[in-house]
Amino acid sequence: MQEPDPVCPAAGRVRLRGVRRVYRQGRAPVAAVDGVDLDIAPGRFTVLAGPSGSGKSTLLQLIGGLDRPDEGAVSLDGTRLDTLDDDTLTRLRGERIGFVFQSFNLVPVMSALENVELPLLQAGPSSTGSRERARSMLEAVGLQGLHRRRPGELSGGQQQRVAVARALVHRPRLVLADEPTANLDRASGQALIALMRTLQRGTGVTFVFSSHDPSLLDEADVRVQLLDGRLA
């Protein structure tokens, strides 16, 4: 299996200080994340674990700049994400962060190759060789020969591999995966975990997951346990 080019081994360091995110349920405020201090070392396989409602998905969104904290600081490689304006934050996410979602989030009318290439095209006209890089990334996740198929013509496990390829194609420093095995059968889930571990070791990219999948928890370098929005 061909592996993508490595990122800088020192890249992908995450730091959170006093992070709090509050939502309102009716009139009562509920702290989904409540005063979290957390350091995630670069190049590690880190899993945010906990029961439903523990805050792991919200924390993952805060780390990736998909949501903003009500209080506290979120940094990636020394850059404060919570203080950036929307345009700068969007640009930073496109350059440094890859996302894998449990629902795959593939564009149904695009082929697997086009879905993987999409982040490179969104980066602008400077993305020379984007088609070839996308093709190489599909080969890296074991989907050679399937580049013309649309998502509806692929199995769930194959669709999630396309999503992983898309997350890694722009050589991010950090990849965030929200319950990536939740919609897969056990065998497909374990194969996906093994694939992501191989890619992580080959590239040095930092992986952070939210999950309660025992297979993923067993594979973690670091397990961060959450309960009621706090580190347990």
TrEMBL record:
InterPro entries: AAA+_ATPase (IPR003593), ABC_transporter-like_ATP-bd (IPR003439), ABC_transporter-like_CS (IPR017871), ABC_transpr_LolD-like (IPR015854), MacB-like_ATP-bd (IPR017911), P-loop_NTPase (IPR027417). It comes from the Bacteria. Coiled coil: none annotated. Residues 14-232 form the ABC transporter domain. Keywords: ATP-binding, Cell membrane, Membrane, Nucleotide-binding, Transport. This is ABC transporter.
